[in-house]
Amino acid sequence: MEYDFEESRVMTEIRGRNAKKVLIQLPEGMKKEAFGILDSIGRNCNAEIVISGSSCWGGCDLAVDQAKKINADLLIHFGHAQFVRADFPVLYVELHSKLDAASLLRENIGKIDIEKIGLVGSVQYVKQFENIKKYLESIGKKVFIPKKKGFAAYDGHVVGCEYNSLKTIENEVDGFLVIGNKFHSLGAALMCVDKNVYLLNEQSNNLELMNDERNKVVRQRAVAIDKVKRANKIGIVVDNKIGQYNLKIAERLKNDLEKLGKEAMIIVVGEFSPGLMNFYDVDAFIDTACPRISIEDYGRYDKPIINSREASVVVGRRSWEELLEKGLIGFA
Q1: Which of 26, 197, 260, 305 is the most exposed place for a label (fewest CB within 10 A)?
Q2: What is the pLDDT of residue 43?
Q3: Number of domains into which the chain is organized
Q4: Mean pLDDT, range 45-57, rounded to an integer
């Protein structure tokens, strides 16, 4: 396994909690490890291990209801840091990477042509930030690791919907280096649209500049917002996931849209999916759940979809230029 599954800690927690039944929740890219986890953990403890097969998109997406339904004593959530508080025992295993990110960066350092670097990454790499910082400083770079903010659990930590810490050092750096994958680096690029954003890619073992991809998405978002502005009937989607439930945002948007003379309705879902297209008379949708759905999944839908922060432009609370300044990732 290329990540640390912390089997010893997991088994200690199971025994210490005297858990008889445990539900394991894995992110999509880690479901392939299910049998390995059963083998390494299940045979070394007396608990019954059950695997959640539902989608898992982040620490916001806890399988608490499933755990309660099967009368589990503990939910073990792999791949993310704590995001929300749950009324159920949850053990978080962050899956720290075994990849030596500093060595990979050393092989690709010639591709970075900026001096003042903001260093951030997914939770899998937070333990490696100091080594990376030391290496960069040893070759004359100035490195800034932003203090944690919002949903981030650690300094320099970014999650799919949380990049506000980048704004706190934006004026001090020439650009950002993101350790992780394209999902997190694109989010950083969309948050700081005037900065170079580099990705040290854990999947391709390469270093990539995200500016071109960022610019393409910015153009896409401008078109989507314009389409929603011209829509007459708008569905405002609320997801009932524990970490994505934003009914108050939806109610405020509904009120704002109706003041503009538009018809709006709130739609509650268990998961945002193309099934929404069955609302044939709805012209466009506003996603109040994960702000990345409207970006990564935009091509899956036949109708325009924007997130709640983008919707602030539709209802006149901020201009397009103000949205770009604030950053495209976040909530209303």
Answers
A1: 260
A2: 80
A3: 3
A4: 93
In whole angstroms, give the CA distance from residue 243 to residue 230. 31
Tens of pLDDT, residues 260-273: 999 999 999 999 99
Q: Which amino acid is at 249?
A: I
Q: Please, is 85 exposed, middle or buried when counting C-beta atoms within 10 Å of its C-beta (0-12, 13-18, 19+)?
A: exposed
Q: Would 217 be classed as within a structural domain?
A: no
Q: Hey, is 62 helix, strand or coil?
A: coil
199: enclosing H helix or E strand: strand 196-201
Nearest to 253 by CA among 266, 241, 240: 266
The encoded tokens of residue 284 equal: 């466009």
CB 202 within 8 A of CB 181: yes
Q: What is the pLDDT of residues 211-235, one digit of tens each?
A: 999 999 999 999 999 999 999 999 9
Q: Among 95, 118, 145, which residue terminates a domain?
A: 95
Size (the chain), residues: 332
Residue 284 belongs to a domain with what CATH number? 3.40.50.11860
